[in-house]
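Below sits the subject:
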Amino acid sequence: MFGISFSELLLVGLVALLVLGPERLPGAARTAGLWIGRLKRSFNAIKQEVEREIGADEIRRQLHNEHILSLEQEARKILSPVQEPAKPAEPVAQNSIAPVAEAAPVAPIAPTEPAPTPTASPAPHDPTLPPRAP
């Protein structure tokens, strides 16, 4: 990540040996190691907590979506008896073409209700026209 090579670590160690001296260097290295270990553990704990929160948010989002879907399905069940959708026409298979002689005859569909008969409504009387006979 930082790109520190072995030669750079060796240089830092030599400078620390010169600055601290051979008596204090082992204690300073031990203290530095302890602090670095504590930092790593705290960063890992924070990272795990954030990942847990992100996972919890994702689970909450999925539960919310599932709840919405279940409500939508219930609404469809309630509305389906009230509004019966028109049945779609059966699709014609493109790969299977039957000869005309083998095809079953199709009966015309008779209307279930008679068509309304038009009734003549009286036209409004125009004063320019002669009066009509009853």
